[in-house]
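Let us work through a complete example step by step.
Step 1: write down the sequence.
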Amino acid sequence: QVQVAESGGRLVQAGGNLNLSCAPSGLATYYSYIVEWFRQAPGKEREFVAKIRWWDGSADYSDSVKGRFSISRDDAKNTVALEMTNLKPEDTATYLCTVQHKGGGMIYRGKGTLVTVSS
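Step 2: predict the structure and record it as tokens.
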């Protein structure tokens, strides 16, 4: 059974940094998967943040976080990190991780981790 768990969210001051972690488990092989981070603020639609292709580490970012956030994978721990720097109050949201095979099919989701950025 595939499970996805996010962690690392907390209250941080504007300008601060935070690292989130996404830990998928139960995958037969991690190298065939795409891991994405989304976020959803209260009263707003879910927004794409970043994604990484596990097999080659290539990544994409939304314009709102490009240059401030960095996504990476840890092959030893089978986790994906989202390093967030220079955080802004508008980054406040629940951050969710999804995992999907590169060929499509089932999308596995975690429950999210809350990031609150105070001004």
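Step 3: interpret the result. The mean pLDDT is 96.
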